[in-house]
Structures are given as C-alpha cells and as structure tokens.
Amino acid sequence: MQSRMKNPAMLLPDAMQPMLAFERSSRKERFVPDAPRLVHLRISQVNGCSVCVDMGWRQLKRGGETDERLFAVSAWRDAPYFTEAERGALALA
Question: What pTM, to 2 d.p., does this model score?
C-alpha cells in the first residue's frame, strides 16, 4: 500500500516536537485513556508506516490492551470492541 503522505517529521523537521508534546499532554489528561494511542496506530496503518505500526501496537500491548482490540483497529467501524468516544477519535483519524 502506498502512503498517502510522507512522514511530517521528514517534510517539516520542526513538526516532531509539537507532535511529541501533544502525545505527552494527551497521556496526562486521559480523557479517553487509550484513544490517542489507538489513533496513532490507525494513522500509522493508513499512512503505511511499518515502524510506527510496530511501535504503536507494542506500546498499547504493554499498557494492557487486548489482542482483540489491537487486531480490530484497522476495521474499527465494524468491530464491537470500541467505545463511542474511541470511535469518535478513530473517525477523526
């Protein structure tokens, strides 16, 4: 599968720090506990970044995520494993 866009950090080197800051901030707030990481995994799948997909599922698994949910991220619309808040976050991805 062809990526839809190049990695923003490669196109705009200054983009990486704000993206990392957003991720740190979203982890602190925990409104929807794993939504930011689920979204990161989904975006990585869409963009075809194998390194990011590998890193994403490993972080989620370490955090206690179930295999069912990890396997279903690519088909989240049809999977029964996600809350409405998580579905909203995944839809924005």
Answer: 0.68
